[in-house]
Amino acid sequence: MAHVNNINLGLDLQGGFEVLYEVEPIDSESEINRELLSDTVSALNARIDVLGVSEPNISIEGDNRIRVQLAGVTDQETARELLSTEARLSFRDVDDEVKMDGGDLVEGGARQSFHPDTNQPIVTVTVADASLFEDITREISNRPMGENILAIWLDYEEGDTYEEEIMKEDSKIVSAPRVSHVIPSRDVMIEGDFTSEEAADLAGILNAGALPVELTEIQADSVGASLGERSMEMAINAGIVGIALIFAYMLVYYRFMGFISLLTLTGYIYLVLVVFDWMNAVLTLPGIAALILGVGMAVDANIITFERIKDELRSGKSTMSAFRAGSRRSLSTILDANITTILAAAVLFYFGTSAVQGFAVMLIVSILASFITSVFGARLLLGLWVNSRILNKRPRMFGVKEREISEL
């Protein structure tokens, strides 16, 4: 049970948020390549750490798209703003002339703090060169009243102006302090109408660094927590019913061998969950489907082996001889079926998107686990009983009637 509780649930099982971005270069000189996409994914991962999402799923799709899946996120608007903000920080005067930008700051030096006088939440950043900020504040402080302002912009774009932007409710100017004297310090306070959470988010964005590209949202989907919980409950119930029917069929039709199959299938399910927990993978609805499909593959391997053994018993061979011949003859068929399915799953993983890749990974794990339990595990258990000679001259224990043997 511990392994089940440790498995991380995907977006469709616990609810959350998914968005697909189209990646565009910031300027005409840049071009989108794999390296730039990887850098963007790294920057997005750093930002998601601010949200506290334990298992985000960020994947590159095609030549210029990135899909972000955040399971368990409830505040979608905050997540969107955090992800899409380019975080290009710049310090400008009222004439929109840049005085300092993010490149002049110490990397990772942004932090959320409180104003020493008002106790309001602020963000402090550290300037790499103290003399640079001293020169800037000296020049700004000598300007007349109304012009002695050092505006702090986030994502300034060509054509933006201080006069227009400062009047907007959702302004790109996060702070516009008056500079009345020279500041010989490396620490710069960014003030605004921040809550503690907003200040912490801004500090996290600045520490994560500016995105090297522009992100255009082209698709967004959300799954409510209750919907995800209901989907998981339905999937688990369907799986339990399906597996129970398989167990019943194997017991009725294959008798003792069906009981061996029941034990190995139970071991298969446990082994898959252990491996998935070890991989720290995220379980999704397609993953549950692959797990149940793997049960079918495991049963198929057992049925092939058991039918070969029954054929050998019908031909008049002893229990020991039938077991050995049936196991040997079934191995190549089982190998062929498993290898071709693994190849198909590998193709799905290589060419598929996130959901398809999750299904492919779970399918590969399921096939390997089923091969270990249903081939080696079932043969080991059945072989122990056969070697004990308890099953000698008891064909009915294998689902074979005496009259079927006498007819051959």
From TrEMBL:
It is found in: Cell membrane. One of its GO terms (molecular function) is protein-transporting ATPase activity. GO terms for biological process: intracellular protein transmembrane transport; protein targeting; protein transport by the Sec complex. It comes from the Bacteria. The chain crosses the membrane at residues 234-252, 259-276, 288-309, 330-352, 358-386. Residues 39-96 form the Protein translocase subunit SecDF P1 domain. GO terms for cellular component: plasma membrane. Pfam families: SecD_1st, SecD_SecF_C. Keywords: Cell membrane, Membrane, Protein transport, Translocation, Transmembrane, Transmembrane helix, Transport. Residues 215-385 form the Protein export membrane protein SecD/SecF C-terminal domain. The keyword Repressor does not apply. It is a multi-pass membrane protein. InterPro entries: Acrflvin-R, SecD, SecD/SecF_arch_bac, SecD_1st, SecD_SecF_C, SecD_SecF_C_bact. NCBIfam families: 2A0604s01, secD. PANTHER family: PROTEIN TRANSLOCASE SUBUNIT SECD, PROTEIN-EXPORT MEMBRANE PROTEIN SEC. Belongs to the SecD/SecF family. SecD subfamily. Part of the Sec protein translocase complex. Interacts with the SecYEG preprotein conducting channel. SecDF uses the proton motive force (PMF) to complete protein translocation after the ATP-dependent function of SecA. Forms a complex with SecF. Part of the essential Sec protein translocation apparatus which comprises SecA, SecYEG and auxiliary proteins SecDF. Other proteins may also be involved. This is Protein translocase subunit SecD. The gene is secD.
